[in-house]
Write a structure and sequence with these properties.
Blueprint: E1 2-3, E2 6-7, E3 15-17, E4 31-34, E5 37-41, E6 46-48, E7 59-66, E8 70-78, E9 84-86, E10 99-102, E11 106-110, E12 121-125, E13 131-133
Parallel strand pairs: 3-4
Antiparallel strand pairs: 1-2, 4-5, 5-6, 7-8, 8-9, 10-11, 11-12, 12-13
């Protein structure tokens, strides 16, 4: 059976989940029911049946920077009401000129100056706004780098 460009064999099963699994390439073609809707994993994200990407953006974050001194504050802008507030969690160090990028479930702030160059990568979980540095580090301490995801 052809399923969104993927050929499936055998019994076709759709799992009901209480929490959406984080997308990964290994899940491509998987279908789940979540909160009464059906979703499938394509080659880049979870998709709601007959709609656009499942994980719509709900907030924007601005992390660190310079405001008379280098800061570790993270501001969160809720798109639904345009309200901005600092979240409780902060970057692990005051930093500016860092690179930023994100997955469906977390944002990352990499490198920058503290004021010294750093190779630390901080991870902000969108589900609870908690921040922690991850074990992996950049291959070199740097600032003013570009960040992107695929």
């Amino acid at each position: 059976m052809d399923n969104y460009g993927l050929e499936n064999e055998g019994i076709f099963k759709i799992e009901e989940v209480t929490e959406m699994p984080a997308w990964s390439a290994a899940l491509e073609g998987r279908r789940v029911y979540f909160e009464g809707d059906q979703f499938y994993a394509n080659d880049s994200s979870w998709m709601k049946e007959d709609s656009t990407a499942y994980y719509p953006s709900v907030a924007g974050f601005v992390a660190g920077g310079y405001s008379t001194v280098v800061i570790s504050i993270i501001d969160k802008l809720l798109f639904s009401n345009d309200n901005v507030a600092s979240i409780t969690s902060k970057l692990t160090d005051e930093k500016r000129w860092a690179a930023g990028f994100n997955s469906d479930v977390a944002g990352f702030v990499a490198g920058g100056t503290t004021p010294a160059l750093t190779s630390i990568i901080d991870k902000l979980l969108f589900s609870n706004d908690n921040v922690a540095s991850i074990t992996s580090k950049l291959t070199a301490a740097k600032h003013s780098a570009a960040g992107f995801e695929n």
